[in-house]
Structures are given as structure tokens and as C-alpha cells.
Amino acid sequence: MEKPLTKNEFMKAEKPDLSGNIQATLADPSLDRFSGDDEQFIKFHGIYQQDDRDKRKTGKEYSVMVRTRQTGGIVPASQYIVYDELSSLFANGTLRITSRQTFQFHGVLQKGIGNLIKSINEALSSTLATCGDVNRNVTAPSNPPVDSIGVAVDEDAFAITRALLPRTTAYHSIWVDGVSLDLGIGETVAKARASADQANPYMPPPADSDDSGAPVDPLYGKTYLPRKFKTGFAIPPNNDTDIFTNDMGFVAIVENGKLIGYNLLVGGGLGTSHGNKLTYPRLADVIGFITREQLIAVGSAVVAIHRDWGDRTDRKHARIKYVLQEKGVEWFRNELAQRLGAPLPAAKPFIFKGQGDAFGWFKQLDGQWFLGLFIETGRVKDAGDYKLKTALRAIAEKFGPVFRLTATQNLILSDIKEENKSAIEKILKDHGCSIVFNPGLIKGRGMACPALPTCGLALAESERIFPALLAKLEDAQAAAGIANEELVVRMTGCPNGCARPYNAEIGLVGKAPGKYNLMLGGNREGTRLARTWKESVLLDEIPVAVGELFKQYAQQRKSGQAFGDWVNDAAVWPAPTTPA
Ligand code: SRM
Ligand code: SF4
């Protein structure tokens, strides 16, 4: 018997404009939350229903998380100023840089959502399709372009962003046309808008229409994709966007100093569920080579393959990675060739040498400077003497740099004039932010997902305990005589993998409160999956267990060998068990 479609499929088919009852809920002041199907529909609008899990014992306090769209992590200063203002007015006072180069607002109450989302749009960004069964934020290298290649890759990332945006008009009619900004906030937004007088780059092209004149999305149809879809770009040798973990990746190929096209990667994805063997993390396959001119046609065809072949009967098994794994790479190449009318030529050689963000000052090609800043767990906030949020607002207002969010949750301020460097440094230091310049090679490479108290899926802590854990791992490194050595450590509060622990040198995956699966053996280049070394390790035992391995590594490693590479080959793995 055929498996039935999931509930989400019927829901999308019934309301293909994704409007749900969102407008009616917003108009009813007695409601403090979205419910029923709307909890799914709002995701397509970049909104997640949440509640403060610290407070559950005394009853649920509802709020939402809102995620912005920032292709390549690019945020103009005028936009940043609006976000800063909005986070204080309507959210919990922080801005969270995500592992896909966007910003998240947490703790937004029902009455503030309209003002927040309309203002984000007025500031020339959007929240459309940053969640839901569609193409999400497109990642791209975060360092400012040092040559024409970087400029071209940014252009292409924006082009594919637009091509893969859903064409629904409900988003704009609810959040843009349907909201009048409150007094005060309207002025701030208008001020920022005046200095950025361009069209919104995230406005979707108009929909097609069917015979009856009804709007039709030419790519997503009525039921969109079976599941989320993620696209990224990388420029070798830096794999800062962790390209192999994307559903679809474009690796820049340069010949004679010119971008000639991309190698197409398909089928990466990390989310799993504990105990569900149908689910697993997977790195993307290299499919073939495409020219820049083919980008939109190929990108759309890959998305259409997911649309047509992804599993719509089980949301845990619905990503395109399962199509690749189960049907095979050759099947995929043939399917793509049929849709394009010709097979793709073989991929060109490329090599990744690392993926770390750079901290401190660097000169751009145009003579201006950029500053790489460490943002602990991506959280832009003021806390005690550490006043990062105030400092960044002051810098944005005074010097107007372009903000570039990195895929490791850090921040680059770019396009800074030489004569402003010392003033910017002083603002950061005066606000207690000296650590941003030089965090060291564990903190600077580390990543943790938000988990508790906002994430409804968290099984264990992550962001809140990560800094203390990393400090202990640094101590363990020092005790083993390998202080300050680069190490990619990533932690998540559940197996969904939002901070990409599955290809880290050390990955920690929440299993239950205070317990983590300890994964080892990914590499610094992000091209190898880690394997589970021990399950359900107590938080306090992690530095001890890893510290013992650091000692063996210090004794046994070959010259220049990274921890992840050593442990992948070392005789430290439990013997495989034979199935009964
Ligand atoms: Fe994620 C769901 C946070 C990147 C795999 N992710 C969630 C939700 C929305 C929880 C929920 O569904 O209720 C989390 C919100 C927590 C909160 O309170 O903010 C959440 N994911 C994040 C962010 C903020 C983590 C971070 O530390 O920065 C990242 C936002 C990215 C963005 O701006 O778009 C984020 N999520 C990722 C990544 C990494 C990546 O894309 O590079 C992954 C693994 C790669 C992948 O997609 O396979 C990831 N998130 C998931 C999954 C598992 C999907 C699956 O295939 O099984 C879920 C759960 C789901 O979709 O049902 C999830
Ligand atoms: Fe939430 Fe799990 Fe993602 Fe962490 S990994 S943010 S706990 S869904």
C-alpha cells in the first residue's frame, strides 16, 4: 500500500499562496500566538512559534523567532541600524548571527511582529522563505571581494536568490501593505531608507498565471518542495560556507584569473533523528561543471528534481540528500541532463584548504580595510561591561561600514577608510570588546546552536554552555602541550545539526539534558564527516575524555597533522559490534 502524503502537503495544496489565517490572527488582539496550520504557514514567512522553555513550569510564554534574508551575509550599515533598533523595541534586545549568515530576532511578541517584519522590508531586506519548504538564505564567501571573482560570485548568489524565491503575493499583502508602522519606529526606518534608495533585492518576480488568471508559481507550483532546500557558494581554497553540507552548492572555478563557472554539488544535508536509521548526515556529491550563464537554469532544474522526486510521505526523509543516496549519483546526472537537454561536462579539479574566519584588520583591493570580529556564539548583545551591541550601532552610525555575517556566526566590517581604523578599534575596546580581535583558534572556529531556552526541539543546552566548555577544552589542550592549536568544535542541542557538528573535528550532539553524543574525525576543510565515538557522554566528562585524546595526539601526530585527521586514523575507536 502506498504511504499517504504528510499533512503539510494537503495544507500547502489548500492555500498555495501560503496565507493561512495569519492576517485574521494578527487582527485579533486577544490572541498571543499562531496555532494549527498557521504554525506551519508562518515558517514560509520567516517566523517560528516558540515559547520560553525556562518558564514552562509556570505556564507557556509565547513569542516568535523571526529570521531575515541576507544573501552572502551582506548587511548594509543602514539596514543594520534598523535591525539594532528593532531588536530593542520588539525582540529580546539581542541579534543572533546564524550559521547561514542571517540574523534572527528572538522573543518577539505577537503585537510586535507586524512592525518588525514591515520594518525589515522597509530596510530593504525580507523574511520571506527564510524558513519553510523552499530555498533558504543563499550563503556565499563572507570576506569582501578582493578581485572580480568575488564580485561575480556575489552577483550570482543574488541572481539565484531571486530566481528561487517563491512568488506568493500573500507575504507582501500581509506584512508590507497590511501593516502601518507605529509612530517613532516609522521615523527610524524612513531615515535609514533615505540613505538606501534602491529597490528591495529580495522582492520576488511576479507569479505566472493559469488559464483562469489565478497566480501560479512556475517553479514551486502549489505544493512547493517536500522539505527545506539550502544553496551556497564557495571560492576555493576557502570553504568558509561549508559547501558540502548544502542541498546545492556552487564551487567557483577560476581560470586565468577569471570566473569561468562552477562545479555543481548536490545532496548535502545534516539533520538526523536519534534512533531513526532512515535519517543520516550526508556530504554533497560533485555532479559536474556549469558555466555562469547556466546558473539559473541548472539551479532551477535541481530544485525541480527535489520538488518532483523528494519523499512527500515522510518529512524526516524528504531532503534531496535521500534522493541522491537512494537513486545514486548517475541517476541524478541523467535526470538533470534530461531536464537541461544535455549532460553536464565533468567537474573541474578544486581543492579546499580550510574554512576559518580571519580576525583583525585586512586590506581590501580598493585600498580600504576590513575588520574580522569574533562574536561569541553569534550573539550580538550588551551584557555587563561587554557592550558589543552599543559599540556596533555606534560604528554603523559613524562610519557606515558594510556588515558581512559569516557562516561561522562571526562578523566582518568592510569598506573602512584607513583613517577610521583606530577610532573603530577604540569604540570596541571602550565598550569592553577586546576579545573580538583575537579569540584564539578554538573559540574562533567554534559554533553552537541556540538550543535552550528558545528552540522547541532542543534536548540539551548548547549556546549557553558553549563558552565555558570551550574554555575547558582550551585548558585540556594546554595540559597536553598543544595550547592554541586550531580545532573545530561544534555543538548542538539536538541531532538536527544546526551548527554543523557532523563535519567538525569534535562534534557534540545533544541527546538528553546534560548528555551529548561525542563525534570525532571531521576535518578543518569541512570535507569529511565525523563519526560517533561515544554516545551520551556527560557534559563534565567531555573535557576529560577529549583531554586524554589530546595527550595521545600530542605524542603520536605526524608533523602538521590536525587533530581531526589524526583521530580519524588513530586506534582509539571502539571495536565495531556485529549485529545479532
Ligand atoms: Fe536549523 C530547525 C536554528 C541552520 C538543520 N533550526 C531549526 C529551528 C528553526 C527549530 C524549529 O524547527 O523549531 C531552530 C531555531 C532555534 C532558535 O531558537 O533560534 C534552528 N538552524 C538554526 C540556526 C539559527 C542555528 C545557528 O546556530 O545559527 C541556523 C539558521 C540558519 C539560517 O539562517 O537559515 C540553522 N539548521 C541549520 C543547519 C546548518 C546549515 O544550514 O548550514 C542545519 C543542518 C544542515 C541541514 O539543513 O541539513 C539545520 N534545523 C535543521 C533541522 C534538520 C533538518 C533535517 O533535514 O532533518 C531542523 C528541524 C526541522 O527542519 O524539522 C532545524
Ligand atoms: Fe534547535 Fe536542534 Fe537546531 Fe539546536 S540543533 S537549534 S537544538 S533544532
Description:
The protein has helices at 7-14, 22-27, 38-44, 77-90, 113-122, 148-163, 170-175, 185-194, 295-309, 320-327, 329-340, 388-399, 421-430, 466-479, 541-556, 563-569, and strands at residues 47-51, 62-67, 74-75, 95-97, 103-108, 208-209, 215-216, 231-234, 248-255, 258-266, 285-291, 360-363, 369-373, 379-380, 382-383, 386-387, 402-405, 411-416, 447-448, 489-492, 506-512, 515-520, 531-538. It has 580 residues and is α+β, with helices and mostly antiparallel strands. It is built from 16 helices and 23 strands. Strand 19, helix 14 (466-479) and strand 20 (489-492) form a beta-alpha-beta unit. The structure holds siroheme and iron/sulfur cluster. Siroheme (SRM) binds next to strand 2.
Question: Care to give the gist of this entry?
Answer:
The protein is built from 16 helices and 23 strands.
Bound molecules: siroheme, iron/sulfur cluster
Share in helix:
25-40%
Strand residue percentage: 15-25%
Globally, the shape reads globular
Classified in CATH, the superfamily of the domain at 444-569 is: Sulfite Reductase Hemoprotein, domain 1
Secondary structural class: alpha+beta
Task: Give the strand line-up of the largest sheet.
Answer: 1-2-5-4-14
Q: Which architecture of the domain at 444-569 does the CATH hierarchy give at level 2? A: 2-Layer Sandwich
